[in-house]
Amino acid sequence: MAATNGDRSKLPVLFFDIDNCLYARSTKVQELMSELIDKYFAQHLNLPDEEAVRLHSEYYTNYGLAIEGLVRHHEIDPMEYNAKVDDALPLESIIKPNPELRQLLQDIDRSKVRLWLFTNAYKTHGERVVKLLGIDDQFEGLTYCDYSAVPFVCKPSPDSYKRSMRQAGVENPADCYFVDDSYNNCKNAQAFGWTAAHLVEEGIKEPATKASQFQIKHLRELRDIYPQFFKSG
Q: Domains plus CATH for the chain?
């Protein structure tokens, strides 16, 4: 992560989600992850494939993370799960450096705002993604879902927003800005007092009701909705 200079604690913070936000859904990382999760359910719970898919969906719907249902109801080792699912993804052959994204981040004026990563994945996955994108030096820190600490604290739980603020060193929710591809994450961020932008990529069905203050199709639109944070000219 990027080094910091001087007292920047009074600056607002712009929080970025990682998966399906810093890279496009067209990479199919989400589909690959779902396949690995289904496989994990089937093998470790000794379930038929169809039941594994159903239970995976049920836990994701109920808890926001499939792994939380596994830990709550089946006492699986969450770090083993992480090794077999997130860390097993062949990201090196899928995610490549993104010069356009890097330029967008470099155009943000760091004397006006701090950049922070905020993901429901474990830290190894989050760090791997931003390194592969070539942007790991653009953020001051990372708030992640700690799979080794039960119960989990993850978006869209209010406690997750509190924790990210504490870790990023920002006290006032009004100083928190956010972009995420999840409807519920953006909705709850706004309810918590943050200013949120819901990323709905081109080709994805738009929600009937907006999740939060802003809805965008591409990260480049951050220049338009958060112009106060970008370098002039």
A: 8-24+95-229 (3.40.50.1000), 29-92 (1.10.150.450)
